[in-house]
Amino acid sequence: MRKLPPLSALRAFEAAARRNSFKQAAEELSVTPTAVSHQIRQLEEWLDLKLFERQTRQVRLTDGGKALFPAIRDGLDGFERAIESVRHARDAKVATLTSTVAFTARCLAARAGAFHKAHPEWALRLDATNTVVDLDRDADASIRYGSGQYPGRIVEPLFGDRFAPVCRPDLRIASEKDLRRATLIHFEWGAAVHGDPRAIVWQDWLEAAGMGSVEASGGLTFTEEVHAVQATVAGQGIGLLSLTLVADELAAGVLVQPFELTLESFRYDLVYSKRAATRPATGLLREWVLAQFGDRTPARTRSKRLARDA
């Protein structure tokens, strides 16, 4: 029978040793610093060995702690790998791809059948969320919309996005005068990018177009981007929208782009974790996503790279 201290004490020790901080270890483990301190003191008593030198703002490992740390770290890493392997073996035929609500609704949903046709033995699960998902645990890959900087993740650039006014052709909008009488359609950017110059709004486009006589704040505002797209397609007004999200309607003539000026916004990237890179599901998703969307970007910008930690 193995004689081992409590697992909670070992986890607290490993996190505190890795971060040199009881406070940061507590944040990682979702407990209080007092709880971490108690667990480590319990481990020290069990071992009859002092593991840390307590200082004002940080802690440092003693010689005994330095000797113990690699074994505990490697052991917990081994537990995690084994658990992940078992969990993914259970779901081996489900490939989970996450992306924003708007991109999933407007670009992925209509193309999901192509994945099933290419891999009929696999189930494709599309996770539509504007919240950043844990790519080690909750998804095999992600199509992310943002700056392209995702520390510690593998990033494969797909294409950049641009914004322009679009509307139904029967609204007959072609000039600044027409815009003054039109209903402008807006959507609210999330708090994470609010104020970023790439989060394009009507005021930005009107200033760039030299159309200062048009009131930028009036019209219809939606909290969700995909609803602004739907309102524009329904002829409720003219939307300043992502050309990516309305590409099909523009190609079919359902919508038109009455003004030539477009403004550069964020970019789309295929993102996955280093740990997920060897999963069959991630490999299939990578192949499918690059086939569907990778040809929009010149080949020289599509090479795989690993985002470095900041």
Automatic annotation (TrEMBL):
Keywords: DNA-binding, Transcription, Transcription regulation. The keyword Glycoprotein does not apply. The keyword Cell wall biogenesis/degradation does not apply. InterPro entries: LysR-type_TF_proteobact-type (IPR058163), LysR_HTH_N (IPR000847), LysR_subst-bd (IPR005119), WH-like_DNA-bd_sf (IPR036388), WH_DNA-bd_sf (IPR036390). Pfam families: HTH_1, LysR_substrate. Residues 5-62 form the HTH lysR-type domain. Gene3D superfamilies: Periplasmic binding protein-like II, Winged helix-like DNA-binding domain superfamily/Winged helix DNA-binding domain. It comes from the Bacteria. Belongs to the LysR transcriptional regulatory family. PANTHER family: HTH-TYPE TRANSCRIPTIONAL REGULATOR, HTH-TYPE TRANSCRIPTIONAL REGULATOR TRPI. This is Glycine cleavage system transcriptional activator. It comes from Cupriavidus pampae.
